[in-house]
Each structure stands twice: as C-alpha cells, then as structure tokens.
Amino acid sequence: MLSNIKAVADKFGCEFREDAPMSDYTSFKTGGPAELVIMPNSIEALSALISACRESEIKPYIIGNGSNILVSDSGLRGVVLRLAKGLSELKYLGDGVIYADAGVPLSKLCAFALSNNLSGLEFAYGIPGTAGGAAYMNAGAYGGEMKDVLRSVSHINFDGEAGCFEKENLKLGYRCSAYTDSNLIITGLTLKLKNGDYDEIKAAMNLNLNKRKSKQPLEYPSAGSTFKRPVGYFAGGLIEQCGLKGYSIGGAEVSEKHAGFIINKGGATTNDVLSLIKYVQNKVFTETEHLFDKDALIFSNVKSNYVTLSEKRAGKHIRFTFGDSPFLAIWAKPAAPFVCIEPWYGVNDSYEKTTDFSKKRGIQKLSSGKEFEFSWSAEFKED
User: Fold this and answer.
1) pTM of this structure
2) Which domains does the chain have, with CATH numbers?
3) Residue pLDDT, tens place only, 206-244
C-alpha cells in the first residue's frame, strides 16, 4: 500500500524517508522509527498525498516542525506528512496583510514582517515551530498571542476538501483553536499587522529573544514550556516550590534554569519524558497548598468520564463517575481539608466575556417542554 503513496511523492518531487527515526523530526529528539515520512513541497502535493493515503486506507500523521509533540519510542506505523520547510510560501499582500504557508518557520515569518516594517509579531520571535502550528495552538508569549494578528486560516480535511475559517470562527483561546482535536489540516494563514518603525520592531524582537536566552534552557532539546499555566499561577513557580528543579528520570530533567521546562539532558526516551511529566504533575497537585487559592482548575474536552481520588498511605480510594459533562472542575477553599470534584455543564465568564447570555461558553439550551437529565456516582474502595 505504501508503494502507491511513494509513487505520488515521486510524481510531485517530494522528499521521503523510510524507517526514519522520529527523533530526527521532533524538538525533544526522541521517538522511534516511522514507516514512511514524506515532506510535501506544495499544497497540491499535500492534497494528492492525502488522497493516496485515503485510497490505501491509511490515515496519515500530520506534523509541522515537531516542536510540540512526543512520539512513542516504538515508533509509528503508516505515513507521516511533515509540513515544515516544504510548505514555505510567504508573501506580502499589501495593507499590512501577510500570507504564510503552514510550514513556514515562525522565526522566518517574524523576520519577514520586520523586513516589511510590520509590527505585531514581536512576541513570537524565538518561539519554535511553524506558522501553522502557532495558529493551531494560538501560540503566545510576553503579552501577545496569535489571536491578536490572525485574520484567516485555510485548511483541508482528510477527504481533500478545502476550506477557510475567518477570525471570528477560529475559536481562539488559551493554547487552543477551532483546529484543536479536529480532523482539519492547516495549510496556510493570513495575518493583519500594523505599520511600524523598523528599528523599534527589531529592538522589541531582540529584547524578547534575549529574555528567552537568559531564562530558558535553549541549549537543550525540549518542547518549550511543558505545562499549561494554572489560573493565577506560574507553572514553573509551583514546580520550583516543590523542589523539583534538576529532578530527572532517565535522560529527561526538570530544567535548573526554568522549572517549567522538561529537557532532554542526553539520551532521553519519550517514556522518560512522559514519566517525568506525570511525576511533576502528581507532585505539584499533592504538595502545593495554594493551588486552589484563586480559582478552580477547569478541564475541558475531558477524554475520560471518571476521576479517582486516592489516599495511598491509607489505601482508600473514591472513584467519581460523571457521564459526558463537557467540563470538570477541581477546587478547594484555602487551607480546607477537602477537595471538590465537580462535573460542570457551563463555566463562569472569562475576561473575554460577552454580554450575550446565549453565547456564554458551555451554555445548555433546551427547547420549551424538553428535559435535561444528568447522573453521577461515587464508588468507595479500600486496598
């Protein structure tokens, strides 16, 4: 089946590798071999390769520059389509608007904006990854986010059908967008920037880059900041509070320079990284007494329908099953000897709140005369 896909890659002149170690294509420098890695060199080639995969009943893995992913140590069966470098068109459309293919490195996009005296991407200078990846996760730093400059994002699906989301339909939030967990492949984007002074833009970019160099372990392979920031806190500060700077599992280490980074100190495996992430999460969750002082932890798009609270020393456990609620909240009052686990069907307004109640995030709508049912259960166990 792969022979047909390789034939399409040859037809379009796309580079490909067989049994390619994914450590060559991830910023963590971990990951086992992929059966076939192809670098599409145009959107047309990408569409043709997706069609060939579909005809061979193979759903390909889509990656950009591999700067925010982990690949299993056992590798990947099937096809990986790597968009970085191949999808590289970058052009100025006038009136402050730039078009970039999804595979354009974010650093190159920032430099292109600078060369055209356009301001708005200073925050992104030095962020690893591609333009497509930045749009996918609404990348941000130093008070700026992609949502501030994105105008539209184009895509195709796994049936080869093309589409485009204008800004109002991108659902841009904290490190998420309409593309998060979707079956849509970003192919390009347009950004609306402002005219600015070249020297001022360059100075702001250099300032942000120097901040990164002084505070982040850029000399080691990583995926950047590893943990999402809890509301009202800095993840790195909580991790440092638990005394985890320098803690390691195998070749993976909590950076001594910035505790929010897990780095490949040398010879790390994906399993090392995942084990360390889980260890850090558990340590912070169980040992940080101020975690809930300012707000609840709210999880959306939860993949499981239950959560277990355990007291390992006593060997006691509570398993709370909550059905298909779209949100799960965990909270406690300051210094309280309890924790609340609650399924939520709606959430409080954010700082981006709208005054239109019908558009409130998570709002449940019932027609007249209709009913809404919800159930939950708690199961207590002892070892």
Assistant:
1) 0.75
2) 2-82 (3.30.43.10), 90-200 (3.30.465.10), 222-287 (3.90.78.10), 297-382 (no CATH)
3) 999 999 999 999 999 999 889 887 766 788 999 998 999
Confidence of residue 311 (pLDDT cuts 50, 70, 90): confident
Q: Higher-confidence residue: 85 or 134?
A: 134
Query: What per-residue confidence (pLDDT) applies to 178?
Result: 95
Q: Quick one: three-class SS letters along the chain?
A: CHHHHHHHHHHCCCEEEEEEEHHHCCCCCCCCEEEEEEECCCHHHHHHHHHHHHHCCCCCEEECCCCCCCCCCCCEEEEEEECCCCCCCEEEEECCEEEEECCCEHHHHHHHHHHCCEECCHHHCCCCCEHHHHHHHCCEECCEEHHHCEEEEEEEECCCCEEEEEHHHCCCECCECCCCCCCEEEEEEEEECEECCHHHHHHHHHHHHHHHHHHCCCCCCEEEECCCCCCCCCHHHHHHHCCCCCCEECCEEECCCCCCEEEECCCCCHHHHHHHHHHHHHHHHHHCCCCCCCCCEEEECCCCCEEEEEECCCCEEEEEECCCCCEEEEECCCCCCCCEEEEECCCCCCCCCCCCHHHCCCCCCCCCCCCCCCCCEEEEEEC
